[in-house]
Specification:
heterodimer; A: 452 residues; alpha/beta; Rossmann fold; Helicase, Ruva Protein, domain 3; 5-stranded parallel beta sheet; B: alpha/beta; 4-stranded mixed beta sheet; 5 helices; 20% strand; globular; binds adenosine-5'-triphosphate; binds magnesium ion; binds zinc ion
């Protein structure tokens, strides 16, 4: 996952700098390029780069070695690679003594640079993983338990990182099973409040009065069954975070009470006379469209705006299908261990079936489907048959009957269209199903003007 | 009609162009348009390196992009370089419009080996998919058999197939789809 690593290229020669940056960007790194040692230092002060490529000879101002030494003062862990021409190799060797990790002589073999960079990044990845591992031991949920390679999800991770230590309220939206609770935990456990309580309240599960006492607590005898004083979740969350799940489902009375807490961080226990004050960060989640509820008058707009300070909307699983293989692998590892089964992987056909399915229940449904498949699986590999219960005939296939009024050409066209549709545009597969080679298929598609 | 245009910069054999046309069309799903062939890109020749600057080639390709050109691929027999590196198989603008590939180092002959047409054509196709993939914003893939994997030598190039791995093709599909939505075609 190279996009997590930033690289700075420092070279006075524009074409050198830009082509090098472009080449590294293709490898997935985030690359900045600057023209002088001065600018490099400015950049190094404001951001953190994993690797600095620094040209040894830069006219005027500070040269490559000086730049390197200054950068190493700012970031002792950063790797510096000196770029040099043949003529100045000796100086480059001096640079190594001053702390450069490596030097390269331009023009350099592409293989050499790519090995060098990947070696450095590998070490850095390992170091980072160690840090994460250590964090995992001390915190039950690390941010990295959330599995995704989807760019939108990665933007969300970045956002979480930025807001985790703020006190602002966060509203998390997204269909059921997309991981809203997981995100809420990640925010809490990656921020300043990680060592303090994280308290979850499921607002949909309880009747209004019960929910009220659940949130705010009650005094002894305040209602039938209140045989003793009880602390509410807001009190329990003091210093930490309260996660209000399914906030879209609460009654209008509770909406008003919540609004007050959000505004003043003060409330009364049910039946209480003493006002209590807490320091709590609120994270709320809902699978409903709150804005629509506001427009229809079912949800207070003032509460909505209080909640909606930072909004995170989780994409549905069908909008990030690239995560399906990763999640499947993750769940297979975890579940077969938990279920004491020896299922290790999933066949290509099985995976394809999962990729094609629509997942209305999102990641939770995927997790459940894998659990069910693992339980019934008789081998070490999950295959299509293990997922029969997913009901693949979703988009009800029409019965095919032989058309009697068309030309052969028209028939051929229809068959090709249908086959390409079935293979989701995969021409190689379509050609092999049709029993013709790819170039013949290409010709036919051109001839019949078939869209792809 | 929005299309991916292919232009030869110098003498490129018909079978190579036909292979490119087929695989590019197959992978990216756009109409292919072959532009009239051009001369060797002498404007990009570097006296000192005795090679051709891929940057300059890309810049000149940019001038040929027309409103219905979705992407433009230049194919040249000459050996390309960027200043930092001793050579490049190809280069592209990440998220851009143009890409160029050099056939020079894809031929067995370059390494003093017996020519092998099939191997050469296959490499050509993979290199084109790779560079055009970059123009769609794809970066290097970890799947070694995916054409988007980084190849800095022939072994790595030969280990690749000409078919994008699942995650690259999904990402590609998403970008292409959003492009269609924003007005191209349909
Ligand atoms: N990106 C992910 N990586 C790993 N596991 C995930 C991911 N997203 C969701 N899960 C898992 O899927 C299940 C559902 O997630 P979660 O409870 O957070 O969803 P939710 O959006 O709160 O759903 P609901 O609206 O139904 O309450 C959990 O078991 C969670 O661990
Ligand atoms: Mg939930
Ligand atoms: Zn590349
Ligand atoms: Zn790939």
């Amino acid at each position: 996952m190279n996009q997590h690593w930033n690289i700075l290229v420092v070279d006075d020669e524009e074409i050198m700098r830009e082509s090098m940056a472009a080449w590294l960007r293709e490898d997935g790194y985030t690359v900045d390029a600057v023209v002088s040692g001065r600018e490099a230092l400015d950049k190094a002060r404001e951001s953190n780069y994993a690797i600095y490529f620094i040209d040894l000879k830069m006219p005027g101002g500070i040269d490559g070695i000086e730049t390197m030494m200054e950068i190493r003062k700012l970031h002792p862990d950063a790797s510096v690679i000196i770029i040099t021409a043949y003529a100045t190799v000796d100086t480059a060797i001096t640079a190594m003594k001053e702390g450069a990790q490596e030097y390269i002589v331009k023009p350099c073999n592409p293989e050499e640079i790519s090995l060098l960079v990947s070696r450095i990044i590998k070490v850095k990845n390992l170091q980072r993983e160690n840090v994460i591992l250590r964090k995992k031991l001390s915190r039950q949920y690390s941010f990295h338990d959330i599995i995704s390679k989807n760019p939108k999800m990665h933007d969300i991770f970045t956002l979480i990182h930025e807001v985790s230590s703020l006190k602002s309220t966060v509203l998390i939206g997204g269909e059921s099973g997309t991981g809203k609770e997981l995100i809420a935990r990640a925010i809490h456990f990656s921020g300043d409040r990680a060592g303090r309580p994280f308290i979850t309240v499921s607002c949909a599960a309880l009747a209004e009065t019960l929910l009220e006492s659940e949130l705010f607590g009650h005094e002894k005898g305040s209602f039938t069954g209140a045989s003793s004083q009880k602390k509410g979740k807001f009190e329990m969350a003091n210093g930490g975070t309260i996660f209000l799940d399914e906030i879209g489902d609460i009654s209008s009375k509770l909406q008003m009470d919540l609004l007050r807490v959000l505004q003043e961080r003060k409330f009364y226990r049910v039946g209480g006379v003493q006002e209590l004050e807490v320091d709590v960060r609120v994270i709320a989640a809902t699978h409903r469209d709150l804005l629509q509820a506001v427009q229809e008058g079912r949800f207070r707009d003032d509460l909505y705006y209080r909640l909606n300070v930072i909004t995170i909307h989780l994409p549905s699983l069908r909008d990030r299908r690239e995560d399906i293989p990763l999640l499947a692998k993750h769940f297979i590892e975890r579940l077969s261990h938990e279920l004491s089964k020896n299922v290790q992987e999933i066949s290509e056909g099985g995976l394809k079936l999962l990729m094609d399915y629509d997942w209305p229940g999102n990641v939770r449904e995927l997790e459940n489907a894998l659990e069910r498949a693992i339980v019934t699986c008789r081998s070490t590999i999950l295959s299509e048959e293990d997922f029969q219960f997913l009901g693949k005939a979703k988009n009800g296939k029409k019965e095919w009957s032989l058309p009697a009024h068309v030309t052969l050409d028209e028939l051929e066209k229809q068959v090709i269209v249908a086959t390409i549709e079935r293979t989701h545009g995969n021409i190689k597969e379509a050609a092999s199903i049709l029993g013709i080679d790819r170039s013949t298929l290409y010709d036919r598609i051109k001839r019949y003007n078939i869209p792809r | 009609m929005p299309s991916i245009a292919i232009v030869a910069l110098g003498v490129v054999e018909e079978d190579a162009l036909a292979t490119l046309e087929l695989s590019v069309w197959e992978t990216f799903g756009f109409e292919i348009q072959r532009l009239p062939p051009q001369e060797n890109p002498e404007f990009a020749f570097d006296e000192e390196r005795r090679q051709y600057s891929s940057e300059k080639i890309l810049r000149s390709l940019l001038k040929e992009v027309r409103s219905d050109t979705v992407k433009l691929l230049g194919v040249t027999p000459v050996d390309m370089f960027i200043p930092m590196l001793s050579f490049v198989f190809g280069q592209a603008q990440l998220h851009g419009k143009v890409a160029a590939i050099s056939l020079a180092r894809l031929r067995q002959e370059f390494y003093g080996l017996e020519p092998n047409r099939g191997v050469f054509l296959h490499r050509t196709a993979k290199e084109a998919i790779h560079e055009l993939g970059h123009t769609w914003g794809l970066t290097h893939c970890r799947d070694r058999s995916c054409p988007m994997a980084l190849a800095t030598n022939l072994q790595q190039l030969d280990r690749k197939t000409d078919e994008l791995c699942t995650s690259c093709s999904i990402m590609l599909r998403e970008t292409v789809r959003s492009l269609h939505r924003s007005g191209y075609r349909s």
